[in-house]
């Protein structure tokens, strides 16, 4: 007769009552401290004693139970479709995630690739988030907005190049990058300007926006100038092929989409005997340290976030004021850093 091997006894899960006994306080005090409730005055030594007891016991609040008591979760959903292709976007998401956790929110990144906007909104609503920060590509429709609101979301915020009706908007308008780069080239006397359009997956929306900004810069100018899109794969062979055709293109300036593509193309142009900047001025974007090590050093569009307050605090404020007017905040600030390549 076979026997099952001895199984280790299940360890009991520590409760708030255990923390209260260990810290010598009431369960209500434990709840106030661990839920960061600031409406009740509790001394800092008591707060410290409760946190230490919870740490020693390995106690963490039960999210589902807390949600039932509050009537909503503390979950902020950060839907994604693919990893951000622009460092500034990744930096914003990282700041948002770390800041929200410090404010006692649970942050969930939800892969929404392949979902249409309404299907995505229904999937997000199942998690009963208190807020959702939706990127471009899965921005909610009016139907999706109503689904999220009815499920308990107090704030729906879009993150992308343009606002969506009914939602708060954190606008990262990449047109500003292309516009800034081409205005700089025009000011340097360049009139026939190429704009690199990366062929790598995921970069299309950013490239299209930067091209639109470049075209706008020419339209706003008072000079006779033109912009030409230049499709380019990220590889030496593709850059060499474009550089070999350069004399026939008649271009005297190029915005390289970002520093990586600009450096790739600049090296190929120099190898092909095209003078930089004497024959063609080159500008990138992102202000990478590596671009400053090249000769000539690479001019670049520096991009920075210009939020009215830290992104997490902004989301928290919108959650606390669900009936407030819809807000729009333009976060992208673009400035050319002029170096020898232009």
Keywords:
single chain, 342 residues, alpha/beta, six-stranded parallel sheet, six-stranded mixed sheet, 14 helices, 42% helix, elongated
Could you characterize the architecture of this molecule?
- By secondary structure, this protein is an alpha/beta fold.
- The chain is 42% helix and 19% strand.
- The strands form 2 sheets. A 6-stranded parallel β-sheet has the order 2-1-3-4-5-11, sandwiched between helices. Strands 7-6-8-9-10-12 form a 6-stranded mixed β-sheet, with helices on both faces.
- It is elongated.
Count of beta strands: 12
Low-pLDDT sequence parts: none
Question: What overall form do the CA principal axes indicate?
Answer: elongated
The amount of beta strand, in percent, is 15-25%
Q: Please write the string of helix (H) and strand (E) elements.
A: HHHHEHEHEHEEHEHEHHEHEHEHEE
Radius of gyration: 27 Å
- Spatial separation of the terminal alpha carbons: 85 Å
Give the rounded overall mean pLDDT.
87
Helix content: 40-55%
Describe the biggest sheet? 6 strands, parallel
Assembly status: single chain
How do the strands and helices of this protein lay out in sequence?
Blueprint: H1 16-23, H2 27-34, H3 44-57, H4 63-70, E1 75-80, H5 87-102, E2 106-111, H6 117-126, E3 131-135, H7 142-150, E4 155-160, E5 168-171, H8 175-187, E6 192-198, H9 204-220, E7 226-232, H10 236-244, H11 246-249, E8 253-255, H12 259-271, E9 281-285, H13 289-293, E10 299-305, H14 311-320, E11 328-330, E12 332-337
Parallel strand pairs: 1-2, 1-3, 3-4, 4-5, 5-11, 6-7, 6-8, 8-9, 9-10
Antiparallel strand pairs: 10-12
Helix pairs in contact: 1-2, 1-3, 5-14, 6-7, 8-9, 10-12
């Amino acid at each position: 007769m076979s026997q099952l091997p001895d199984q280790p006894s299940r360890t009991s899960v520590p409760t708030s009552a255990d923390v209260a006994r260990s810290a010598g306080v009431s369960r209500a005090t434990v709840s106030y401290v661990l839920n960061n409730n600031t409406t009740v005055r509790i001394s800092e030594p008591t707060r410290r004693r409760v946190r230490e007891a919870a740490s020693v016991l390995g106690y963490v609040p039960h999210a589902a139970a807390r949600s039932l008591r509050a009537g909503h979760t503390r979950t902020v959903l950060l839907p994604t479709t693919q990893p951000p292709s622009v460092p500034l976007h990744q930096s914003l998401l990282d700041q948002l995630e770390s800041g929200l956790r410090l404010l006692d929110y649970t942050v969930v990144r939800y892969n929404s690739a392949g979902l249409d906007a309404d299907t995505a909104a229904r999937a997000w609503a199942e998690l009963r988030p208190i807020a959702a920060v939706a990127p471009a590509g899965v921005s909610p429709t009016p139907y999706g907005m109503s689904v999220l609101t009815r499920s308990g979301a107090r704030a729906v915020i879009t993150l992308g190049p343009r606002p969506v009706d009914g939602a708060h908007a954190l606008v990262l308008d990449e047109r500003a990058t292309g516009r800034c780069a081409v205005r700089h080239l025009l000011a340097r006397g360049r009139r026939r300007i190429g704009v690199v359009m990366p062929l790598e997956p995921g970069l299309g929306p950013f490239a299209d926006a930067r091209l639109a900004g470049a075209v706008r810069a020419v339209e706003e100018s008072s000079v006779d100038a033109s912009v030409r899109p230049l499709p380019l794969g990220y590889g030496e062979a593709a850059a060499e092929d474009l550089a070999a055709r350069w004399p026939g293109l008649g271009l005297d300036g190029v915005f390289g989409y970002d520093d990586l593509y600009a450096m790739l193309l600049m090296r190929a142009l120099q190898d092909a005997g095209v003078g930089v900047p004497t024959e063609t001025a080159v500008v990138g974007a992102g202000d990478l340290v590596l671009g400053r090590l090249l000769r000539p050093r690479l001019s670049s569009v520096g991009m920075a976030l210009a939020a009215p307050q830290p992104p997490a605090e902004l989301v928290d404020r919108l959650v606390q004021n669900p009936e407030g007017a819809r807000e729009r905040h333009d976060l992208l600030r673009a400035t050319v850093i002029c170096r020898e390549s232009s």
